[in-house]
Hints:
The complex is a heterodimer.
Chain A lengths: L7 E6 L7 E7 L2 E7 L5 E5 L13 E3 L2 E3 L6 E3 L15 E2 L1 E3 L4 E5 L1
Antiparallel strand pairs in A: 1-10, 2-3, 3-4, 4-8, 5-6, 6-7, 9-10
Chain B lengths: L3 E6 L3 H13 L3 E7 L11 H6 L12 H6 L3 E4 L3 E5 L4 E4 L4 E3 L2 E4 L3 E3 L12 E3 L3 H12 L3 E5 L3 H12 L3 E5 L12 H13 L2 E4 L4 E5 L6 E4 L4 E3 L2 E4 L3 E3 L2 H5 L8 E3 L10 E3 L4 E3 L7 H15 L14 E2 L7 E5 L7 E8 L4 E8 L2 E8 L5 H10 L24 H6 L6 E3 L4 E2 H11 L4 H8 L9 H12 L18 H10 L5 H7 L11 H12 L13 H5 L2 E2 L5 E3 L10 H13 L4 E4 L5 E6 L4 H10 L12 E6 L13 H12 L8 E6 L13 E6 L2 E6 L2 E2 L3 E2 L2 E6 L2 H18 L6 H8 L1 H10 L1 H18 L3 H6 L11 E3 L6
Parallel strand pairs in B: 1-2, 1-7, 2-3, 7-19, 9-16, 10-11, 10-16, 11-12, 18-20, 32-33, 33-34
Antiparallel strand pairs in B: 4-5, 5-6, 8-17, 13-14, 14-15, 21-22, 22-25, 23-24, 24-25, 26-27, 28-29, 29-31, 30-31, 34-35, 35-38, 36-37
The structure holds siroheme (SRM), flavin-adenine dinucleotide, iron/sulfur cluster (SF4) and FE2/S2 (inorganic) cluster.
The site of FE2/S2 (inorganic) cluster (FES) has 10 residues of chain A, from loops.
Amino acid sequence: xxxxxxxxxxxxxxxxxxxxxxxxxxxxxxxxAVFRTxxxxxxxxxDKCPHKNGPLSQGIVHDGCVxxxxxxxxxxxxxxxxxxxxEGATLSFPTKLEEDGSVLIGL
Amino acid sequence: MSKQNLVxxxxxxxxxxLLEHLFEATDSYNVTxxxxxxxxxxxxxxxxxxxxxxxxxxxxVIHSEEWYAGHGITLHKGAKVSKIDRAAKTxxxxxxxxxxxxxxxxxxxxxxxxxxxxxKDLDGVLAYRDLEDTYGMMKAAKAGGRAVVxxxxxxxxxAAAGLRMQGMEVTVIHLMASLMERQLDPAAGFLLQxxxxxxxxxxxxxxxxxxxxxxxxxxxVELADGRIIDASLVVMAVGIRPSVQLAKDAGLxxxxxxxxxxxxxxxxxxxxxxxxxxxxxxxVYGLVAxxxxxxxxxxxxxxxPSDAAFQHxxxxxxLKVTGVNLYSVGDFAEGPDREDIVLRNASAGTYKRVILRDxxxxxxxxxGDVADGGWYNEMLKSGEDxxxxxxxxxxxxxxxxxxxxxxxxxxxxLSDDAEICGCNGICKGQITSAITEKGLTSLAExxxxxxxxxxxxxxxxxxxxxxxxxxxxDAAAVPEGMCGCTHLGHGDVRRLIVAKELKxxxxxxxxxxxxxxxxxxxxxxxxxxxxxxxWPGEYADDMQSRFINERxxxxxxxxxxxxxxxxxxxxxxxPDELRAIADVADxxxxxxxxxxxGQRIDxxxxxxxxxLPVWKDLNDAGMISGAAYAKGLRTVKTCVGKxxxxxxTQDSTGLGVKLEQFLWGSWAPAKLKLAVSGCxxxxxxxxxxxxxIVCVDSGYEVLYGGAAGLHIQGTTKLGNVxxxxxxxxxxxxxxxxxxETGYYLERIYxxxxxxxxxxxxxxxxxxxxQRHAYYERFVYSQKFAQIDPWAERVAxxxxxxxxxxxxxxxxxxx
Lengths: 107, 814
Ligand code: SRM
Ligand SMILES: Cc1cc2nc3c(=O)[nH]c(=O)nc-3n(C[C@H](O)[C@H](O)[C@H](O)COP(=O)(O)OP(=O)(O)OC[C@H]3O[C@@H](n4cnc5c(N)ncnc54)[C@H](O)[C@@H]3O)c2cc1C
Ligand code: SF4
Ligand code: FES
């Protein structure tokens, strides 16, 4: 992540995303998955599993992680790294939640 | 050499264990058992979990019918022995069976003491000793109302907690000033009382029962001080008396119990006695640990000359009420020669007390935090001098030498002869060596080989810790729990959901003490299914606990696109449906159209954004989701049947369509596939389906438990029926029984292998009333299930799933 060129982009409202769920944001060719945890924390990862590119936005969200829908790798929402014995990481983006419920991603 | 006749009177836990030891040593006996109860040997200790709904009778059977058959034992069930003729060496039962013996074992156990107050014989007054009593209480609980439990000891409190869990109002009447006064000191008794009151159980101490009120059934209880408590059930749990009458009539020496030597021989050298009926060394016993020791000693003498002798040991007491932790062992009466060390934590509600005499531990009482119970008991047994750890003794084992705060360290620090399983007297060394020598990897195996944790189960955590220590991290991969978030297995979780009326995932996780805040991708879908299946109409499906396929009602493919499979009832389609499918494929550029192995058509490579319009077009042509993704009904394959085929005996196609229309939409533990074939040539492959129907001239054969995926297995026959309606009822009942008792992801064949094909047949085929009840429950739950998920989503449900939240169009950044 390159902090110097970071730009905060509004992508929608907190309530657009289900708790323990995710929504996709298209950024040109790239899809970003924006996750909301049960306690309303927001995380953004590239929607691409480090294993075989599975769409992480479609996985099950639990305890700060998402389980990939294709072969069950568990990926940390905060860092994008695979947990347990699996190795690899996907891009992660900083996020901000405004008072009015707007969700921002740092690109 | 011809075999000797060994006759056993009573078929409880003590003689069951005796036989296990005996068969290990010798096969020189023909064994005949008489049992007044009409059943095999079961774990009486575990009646309380049956009462509370946490276990079923099947779970607590110790010796199955096969075990008796395998050892050539003649078991007379429901046959109470009324006479022993020592001169003729025979016993005779009330129902007229006489058996000759060379050696006899009397194991008549004990009977509950009934206080002789007016009204004690009224309908609705029960004791708490056997399965009949337990079922009697469960039946009374169904009717609701208040239960009065007389007796605040171990049994009374387990009964009270169980009845409360079954939904009754409960009052406990206890004669003494504090609960369980024989095992607990007043401080611990107070904490226990507060815990029970917190669960809505009323506790009246120093209360004496004057009479039980009612004309032909129980209506209330009157206390000596005049108070009257309304009640529809009264349970007497005030103590037990050794059953000695039979031995007395036979002229054997009897005191409080049947008097034996330390070799468990009675005053007649050919007659042994084991169990609660025995008095040995002037003591009678009411917990299984000493009874199991008796069993071992008696078996040694029966299988050859032996010098085995019974020895008194202190047995710790625990109360098997889920969520209540107490432990007491040894002597805790106060006295001038004793020293007490007490540690309380008011906010945590814990209490610990260790009693010393001459710097040796002679007793311990713990409430709330009982982790160190085994450690104190070890010191009590060894009689070691504890002066050197006097200061820190009360803080427990972890504190000794500033030990690391690793829960496993406690267990790792125990000596090899520290007792782990009190019931069975199994020490740490026996368990660890069994694990390494026999290569055991699961709790079930450790139970089978060592008996540890196989009786009351309160040491299960310790045994699991030992497995982790012995096997290293590998053991972490094999706990019996459903996943890493809980120690509980699927069966326990299912029963507790019903027993505790848990109706949401957070409620399950809280009440069953999940170790993670939100569960994981293994347990959440399982819990979601259990709740849907157990609370139809009440529980709302939790979409975030479903795999993507079941969340968006299509199958995800390796490239992130989806496949769409519409239902094609019984494999029948029409030119209009085919045209609509072709149009959809054209309109949305669907790359692959394929006929599936399940007699329908798969559209592969649909983009997620196109799912809604694809479904809309298919809905408009009259098609609904084929649920090719569901842990639930998939397909019903059929053959052409008698409409066309020259061998067809019935309308297999029509019946297949009816079955699919009846079953669609239902969720199940795993996928459910059916087939109907028109004759035994079986062109629809019915004999390898979860449920298969084969039409024959006289009607229909219903088969189930087939598999043809990762595992191949032919079906087993459930039975023959005459009409289509019968087929539908049987299939509905079978499906419902599977839905209610299956573990998540367990296909029907694995489920039936686990619970037994005979049992399934008895439940949903042979017993017509029960069959109908299961069928009715299935029909009821279908009211909430048969809603086409595609139509729902086309109409707007879960709209967020199908479109991106935003598209970012960034200006060139630099
Ligand atoms: C589409 C289809 C293959 C085909 O092109 O014909 C298919 C496709 C898949 N099968 Fe199958 N099975 C298909 C018929 C079968 C059959 C044949 C049958 O049903 O008569 C079997 C063997 C019979 C049986 O189930 O016992 C079959 C046994 C399996 C198994 C092994 C199940 C088992 O318990 O052993 C799996 C793996 C699993 O479920 O864990 C599986 C899993 C799958 C999955 C869901 C794999 C996955 O997780 O992605 C595939 C989904 C593809 C998709 O997106 O549609 N599929 N699968 C068939 C769909 C039938 C339908 O109309 O719904
Ligand atoms: C609800 C409950 C909870 C308990 N919890 C614990 C616990 O947590 N820990 C613990 O250690 N102990 C516990 N116990 C006690 C334990 O179950 C008993 O100590 C043990 O079962 C006694 O075994 P036994 O073989 O001596 O007799 P039993 O198991 O009582 O068996 C005696 C059998 O003999 C039969 N019989 C009697 N007379 C005749 C006759 N004349 N002819 C033929 N058959 C006859 C009876 O029908 C009975 O089936 C509990 C008991 C109950 C009821
Ligand atoms: S057999 Fe089934 S699971 Fe395997 S590749 Fe074919 S469709 Fe997929
Ligand atoms: S692509 Fe995510 S686990 Fe395989």
